[in-house]
Structures are given as structure tokens and as C-alpha cells.
Task: inverse folding
């Protein structure tokens, strides 16, 4: 049960003829979550073959246009497609006001309800949870209130091995008991310890989205051990002062956070439009954190297997 | 001094992986006007090599998202690019409320002022005018208040021919008088009639943008003699009832308006996403009005010369 992240856009605020602003779809346990929604996100989803009707929820990091202007056209399109299920949108203030104005002026008659859930950008806490998945807010340091999001698979339920079922002739009641984690007493009175009967079908994995933000050591602690990290790197290492001033990170900042968090892999993006040579940027990160990749638009990054802990 | 119309988008509301929603740039007397602003318009301008900083004004037909959602990101970008000149946006109610919410929630600190000019969609009147150009509102028949726009070159000022200047030895005062349309008295007391001295540098031309609308014979009268007409044709001729119900036109409706208006050329677009074969659609229009073209995205249509009146 891998986590897959499809990059729909990766540019910073100044538009280019080739790139789209921030947007990603995170597929975790076959649930699709949209994370940020820069202009053009719905066409980018169409290109990537992702049906917008399958979106389970939306997470918006902050109220800068390059992270959210694509959401409103998408909400309209979901209406045209006849969505009925309410759609939860997790976003900081004042998203509710923007949503209210959008619904009042453009879409007073949608067949479904977009529901705003306010994200407190000062808190690191669980904001979404179901049987298989947790999403945590991550306080980021930008010019306006901004949250990152940490997606975590929960420990999956135990499966009983085919071998054990045959070896011990387990009946349905015994199988259910084993799945609950119990030892099983056979008709022979022999007690088989649970760990001889069961296995975890997959190790729980995690993905963190962190854009836009200044360098934050506190952030690295909150995402400790994350399997894959997207961290913005708007500027080259030489532009440290500019990055700090504008509430952004450099390639080195992103790499340091990945290193401190002991991340499995680092994706960098949100590059300033001034940079044409992205390879030079990724090399700067790799000097500090070798497992760095450019979060190229149109690419799907998959966490297939739990890496072996160093 | 041709009029040039660059099609930036031509799709109807349902987004596709290949097309963009309605947006055009009209170049009239070297002034650039944006007409409708569907999502992605700023990237489409970049692709077409049109600098958004050169926009003189914006005209929005109506408040459906596929005609306006690209405007707000564009307004933000103009701020990033440091525009200082106010930008007038001609649009029906309630555009002012949308602009107010956008500025308050996303762009409280723009370096220029976007100024809304309300368009009364019930009136056919001049809403923009300068020395060379007029723009007229065109009442359209859609599900919400909607205006088309008629761009007209004014009769250009007279030029004095080189031949006359040399032939009669005109001095600067005499040239200025001739440009004002006056006859000129030479030092010999001979009076030269103005029509022997001057010419009109170009015949005034016109372009009408009509989307979205039901068929309207009244509209055809308002644009009588237009040199080029963009008229929506959301549906094939067989879908007349659906078109009427939805406040849209068929290929035949568009052709009839062009025919009644004695237009020079017809561009059709805003096709429903159900149609894959656009050639079949344009053929339907050509049965009635042969000079029909598909308003293909990325194409620039130019009115080079005044056609000879039939």
C-alpha cells in the first residue's frame, strides 16, 4: 500500500509559459487528497488522468494566490460534474471569507457543499483521521499564516498468514481472534502465540508537504523519520538573505531540514522563476542531503517500501 | 492599421486537457484589450508572447467562472510585475463585489488600482472612447446579465499626400490646415480643394465579440456591417432546444447572425466539450455563412483590409 504523490505544479508566484503553480495530489491508502491548488490545477489533473470527482479532501497551505486560485474553478467543475458528497477544505483563515464570496457571487446553486475546516497554523495536531490515515498540521514560517501537512498511514490491521490457517486448521472464529492480536487455542489445547499466525501487511509510511516557509529546526522535529518530504527551495544557497526576508527557503535550508528529520527522500520545488538551471539547484541540496530530487511537474513519486533504518 | 484578435481560449465551461476557457486579446490601433479571462489566461498570454503589462483595459462579458476566473491571478501577477497604471475592468454586476473580496483577502497591497466600470447589459452604448477607438456594449441573451463588445476604429485623421506637398510646395501651416480638412490657398491665390491634398490612411474597421448568448436578431442589427464577428456556437444545429434552454447558440444561430449583420468574417467557438469533430461544426455554419472559421486557440485573426461591399 504505497503512498504516491503526483506533482501537478511546482512554480513560484511569477507565472511562466511552461510551469504551473503549486499543486499536488497525495494518494494514501487509495484516498486522493489535493494539496494546494494553484491556477490550472484542474487541467493538470486531467492531464495526469486523475478524476477530480475522486478527491476525498483538499488541504491549502496558505492564502497566497499561487497556492489557491485554481481551487475555485475546480469547485465549479465539480458542480458541473454533479458531485453530491460534501468536500472538506482544510485551510487557514480567511479562507472561509473567500469561499463565502465565491459561493455567493459565482456558485449559489452547487449540487454539493464545500465545507471549510479552519486550520490553526500555530498548532501541530491531527486535523484529519480515519481508520487508515492521519493528517497533521505543521506550523510553517511564512509572511502570512501557513501550514504544512504531514500524511501518516496508521499501523495497518494484522493479517493471518495462509500458512498458519492451513498448518493449524484455523476456523473463522480463530482467524478473527488472531486478527485482533490474540493468541489462539487449538482443539488440541495447544496455544499458538499470535506472532506465529499474523503479519502486518505493510509498514506505515509518511509524507510531509512544507511550502512556503523559512528554515525551521522545529519543523524538522515534527516530521522526524518522515519517508518522503516535499520542502520548498525558492532560492539558491547564495540567496540566503533574500530567502529569509521573503519567508522562503534555500536549497540548503530544505536539505538541512531533510537531514535533521532523517527523511527517506527529499523533493524540492517552488523555485523562483529566475532559475533556468534546476540541476544546479538540486546539486546544492544533494551536497547536504544526497537523496534529493526535483519535484518535476507531471511526475509521480512513490514510497514503495519502508527504507531500512540506519 | 489592422485589428488583430488573438484567441487565448475557446472552450466552454467543462475543462479539457487540451483547451482553455474563453479569453481573447484584441489589438486595435496598437492598444491591447483583454476580452474575457478564463482560467489560465496569463499563461496563454505568455505563450502568445503578449506582455500582460501592455493591457490597456479588460472587458468581461459575464460572471460565469469560465469567463473570469483567470482574471484574479492575472491581477496578482501585474502587481508582482510592478504595474503602476490603474487598470480599468469593464464588467457587469456583481463584478465589483468579487473584485472587492479579491483585493481584501488576497491583494491588499497592489502597486496599482484595478478599477471596475459597471457595464449595463441592457444597453447598447459607447462605454470606452478615445481618439482612435470606440467600444460599444452589446446586450446579449444568457442565463445571467451578459454583454458582448463591439470594437470600432474611428475615422482616422487625414494625411496629406507627399505628392501634394511637393506639387504645391505646401508649408507647415498649410499642411496642418489640410489635415484639419480645409482647402488650401496657395501664394498664387489658387485654392486647392482638400480632396486633392489628403487621404484617409486606413478605412475604419470593426470587431464584435458575442459570448455567451441565445440567437438574437436584435444583436445582428447592432453589429450591422461588422468586419469580423466572434459568435459563440456551443452546440451543433441538432441541439437547438438545448441551446435555447441553456442560453447558448448553435452553429446555425451564429451563422444567421453573421449573415443578417452582413459580417465580413465569422469566428465560432465556445464548443461544448462533447464535440470532438470541430470540422463538422464549422461546416454547419458554412452552409449558411461561408466565411466561417473556428476560433482556434493560439491563432491570431487579422482584419487587414476593408472588404469590398457587396
Result:
Amino acid at each position: 500500500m504505497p503512498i504516491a504523490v503526483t506533482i501537478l505544479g511546482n512554480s513560484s508566484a511569477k507565472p511562466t509559459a511552461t510551469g504551473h503553480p503549486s499543486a499536488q495530489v497525495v494518494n494514501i491508502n487509495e484516498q486522493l487528497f489535493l494539496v494546494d491548488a494553484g491556477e490550472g490545477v484542474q487541467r493538470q489533473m486531467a492531464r495526469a488522468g486523475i478524476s477530480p470527482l475522486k478527491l476525498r479532501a483538499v488541504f491549502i497551505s496558505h492564502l497566497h494566490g499561487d497556492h489557491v486560485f485554481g481551487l475555485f474553478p475546480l469547485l465549479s467543475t465539480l458542480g458541473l460534474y454533479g458531485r453530491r458528497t460534501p468536500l472538506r477544505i482544510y485551510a487557514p483563515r480567511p479562507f472561509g471569507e473567500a469561499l463565502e464570496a465565491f459561493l455567493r457571487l459565482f456558485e449559489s446553486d452547487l449540487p454539493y457543499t464545500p465545507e471549510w475546516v479552519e486550520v490553526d497554523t500555530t498548532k501541530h495536531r491531527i486535523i484529519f483521521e480515519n481508520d487508515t490515515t492521519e493528517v497533521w498540521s505543521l506550523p510553517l514560517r511564512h509572511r502570512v499564516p501557513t501550514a504544512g501537512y504531514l500524511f501518516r498511514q496508521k499501523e495497518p490491521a494484522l493479517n493471518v498468514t495462509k500458512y498458519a490457517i492451513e498448518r493449524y486448521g484455523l476456523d473463522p472464529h480463530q482467524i478473527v481472534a488472531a486478527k485482533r492480536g490474540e493468541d489462539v487455542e487449538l482443539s488440541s489445547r495447544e496455544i499458538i502465540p499470535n506472532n506465529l499466525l499474523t503479519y502486518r501487511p505493510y509498514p506505515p509510511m509518511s509524507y510531509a508537504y512544507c511550502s512556503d516557509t523559512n528554515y525551521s529546526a522545529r519543523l524538522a522535529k515534527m516530521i522526524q523519520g518522515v519517508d518522503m518530504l516535499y520542502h520548498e527551495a525558492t532560492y539558491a544557497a547564495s540567496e540566503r538573505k533574500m530567502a529569509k526576508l521573503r519567508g522562503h527557503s534555500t536549497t540548503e535550508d530544505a536539505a538541512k531540514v531533510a537531514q535533521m528529520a532523517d527523511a527517506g527522500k527529499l523533493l524540492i520545488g517552488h523555485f523562483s522563476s529566475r532559475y533556468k538551471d534546476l540541476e544546479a539547484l538540486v546539486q546544492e541540496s544533494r551536497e547536504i542531503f544526497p537523496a534529493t530530487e526535483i519535484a518535476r511537474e507531471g511526475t509521480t513519486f512513490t514510497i514503495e517500501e519502508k527504507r531500512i533504518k540506519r
Summary: The interface with chain A takes residues 13-17, 20, 39-40, 42-43, 46-47, 63-66, 69-70, 72-73, 76-77, 80-81, 94, 97-98, 101, 104-107 of chain B (CB under 8 Å).
